[in-house]
Amino acid sequence: MVRSEERKVGERGQVTLPKELREKLGIHGGDEVLVHEEDGKITIEKPLSREELAEGYRRRAAESETLAEEMDGVSREADEYLGDVPEW
């Protein structure tokens, strides 16, 4: 469910996030947040933790390794099918 609360922007551009949302998202004083603008809307979100980023990189590396193995197999099949192709 999307919740909206109207907030006032302070002189220095500061906005106070509602306590309920800070607690729900685990955002504490001094934490960093990501601020995005898209189509005239501002989104504030908690960034990924280092552990979450590392897991994403590990998953991506495993996917890349699998793709490289698949491409190597396709390349061998192509070589077998085409044989020696003369250089241009």
TrEMBL record:
Lineage, top ranks: Archaea, Methanobacteriati, Methanobacteriota, Stenosarchaea group, Halobacteria
PANTHER family hit by this protein: REPRESSOR-LIKE PROTEIN SSO7C3
Superkingdom to which the source organism belongs: Archaea
Region (Disordered): 59-88
Coiled-coil stretches noted in the UniProt entry, renumbered to this chain: none
UniProt name for this protein: Looped-hinge helix DNA binding domain-containing protein, AbrB family
Ranges where the SpoVT-AbrB domain occurs: 4-49
InterPro entries: Repressor-like_regulatory (IPR052975), SpoVT-AbrB_dom (IPR007159), SpoVT-AbrB_sf (IPR037914)
GO molecular function: DNA binding
Species this protein is from: Halorubrum aquaticum
Pfam families per the UniProt record, alphabetical: MazE_antitoxin (PF04014)
